[in-house]
Amino acid sequence: MAATSRGTTPVPPESRPRLTVLSGPSGVGKSTVVAHMRKEHPEVWLSVSATTRKPRPGEQHGVHYFFVTDEEMDKLIANGELLEWAEFAGNRYGTPRAAVLERLEAGEPVLLEIDLQGARQVRGSMPEAQLVFLAPPSWDELVRRLTGRGTEPPEVIERRLAAARVELAAEPEFDRTLVNTSVEDVARELLALTNVV
Ligand code: ADP
Ligand code: 5GP
């Protein structure tokens, strides 16, 4: 096991779960790690969430998120179209159910990048899911990354850091922790955990 990983003993590939949930505090590097992994392994299927958040520069509808209005999100929830959903730092986010179930039924590995509340919901409804926590090397480094990204105003950063304290305390709920010191190392470990052959 590489130095970035903490967790239980290795699981043989044939018995590994096919649904992997990646969570961790905002700014820890989840998107960066997943993008790095998928650049080299585009076959890893990542669920595209719906969100009421406004797009950041460069984010595309249908690629990074489905950007929806509050009313559209209300309908997705009311119609049971989301596998899980949560409010995070003032916006709502949810995982479209149908696309995930299709992939799982086809026997393909599925990756979700969602917050702690969503991870808990998935654990409740799909106990076979594998929950992976991405941790920062230190609190100060997390603050540096979140601030350095330059995509949120100070009050939103404060809200996200408040959520981060709660998320970091929940690390023991996860099956495995990867510490994001090196994007390359973590991407490699995550690839192995997603069981893509
Ligand atoms: P998240 O998706 O978890 O909110 P991002 O992927 O947007 O986080 O990363 C937040 C910032 O941290 C970005 O500016 C990114 O370039 C940087 N970052 C990510 N991983 C690392 C790393 N291992 N070392 C240094 N900076 C990193
Ligand atoms: P961001 O606004 O930085 O893209 O995402 C904020 C938080 O929402 C992150 O922790 C991200 O993982 C989480 N998130 C993204 N999509 C979903 C989703 O579909 N469901 C849940 N519960 N959280 C999500």
From TrEMBL:
Subcellular location: Cytoplasm
GO CC annotation terms, alphabetical: cytosol
Region (Disordered): 1-28
Entries under InterPro entries matching the protein: GK/Ca_channel_bsu, Guanylate_kin-like_dom, Guanylate_kinase, Guanylate_kinase_CS, P-loop_NTPase
Residues binding ATP, per UniProt: G24, P25, S26, G27, V28, G29, K30, S31
Domain Guanylate kinase-like: from-to ranges: 17-197
Role according to the record: Essential for recycling GMP and indirectly, cGMP.
Identification of the protein by name: Guanylate kinase
Entry EC number(s): 2.7.4.8
Domain of life: Bacteria
Alphabetical list of Gene3D superfamilies matching this protein: Guanylate Kinase phosphate binding domain, P-loop containing nucleotide triphosphate hydrolases
Major localization class: cytoplasm
GO MF: ATP binding; GMP kinase activity
PANTHER family attached to this UniProt entry: GUANYLATE KINASE, GUANYLATE KINASE-RELATED
The reaction(s) this protein catalyses: GMP + ATP = GDP + ADP
Species per Swiss-Prot/TrEMBL record: Streptomyces rochei
Record-stated family: Belongs to the guanylate kinase family.
Pfam families noted in UniProt: Guanylate_kin
